[in-house]
Amino acid sequence: MVRPPAMFIADSLGLDFLNSVATPVDTPVDWIDDGDGLIDWLAQAKLVPAEELNALKARARPGELDKVADQARDLREWFRGFVLEHAGRPLTAKALHELGPLNGLLERDEAFSRIEPRQDEGGVFALRRKRRWRSPEALLLPVGEAMAKFVCEEDFSDVKACEGHNCTMLFADHTRRRARRWCTMAICGNRAKQAAHRSRLKSRQ
Ligand SMILES: [Zn+2]
Fold this sequence. Notes:
Bound molecules: zinc ion
CATH superfamily: Jann2411-like domain
């Protein structure tokens, strides 16, 4: 199956993950509906280094990555429920008890730090965060981390759903006046403009 390029319009990777199923034109697209899709999406999201993705793909048993994609979709839809429940106002400490599944995922992480040579002028070495990619399920860990960052750093007052008809995309509105209404101008913004134009023409008749 050929998928269009994934969309990263949310201004927050945690929300972009929720937008990995969307209807950009007329047909719904699920970018992570199987293992290959998940690998492609993670590569486009730059959440996993390409060489690790290739190595995991080469090592995976048949169907193994598809199973991880199933888990990723379950995680995504659980997180969508949480985000939609809390969008539009600041999170309160009470929400913590709902985040058990996410904390459970984060606990499985095998991240570590390592001193590596620096490429730029800032000095000889840099301390870099790394992760062991022992099993395909490790692919869920950077996704969990992106979701957790979103929960901890984003003001949920700014989390909005696109106003486009039938559009399911979510985004964090970081515009100065908090006036963002659309996933993208190219998709829903223009459609709404055209609809407004048509109704103006009609009312003139
Ligand atoms: Zn939209």
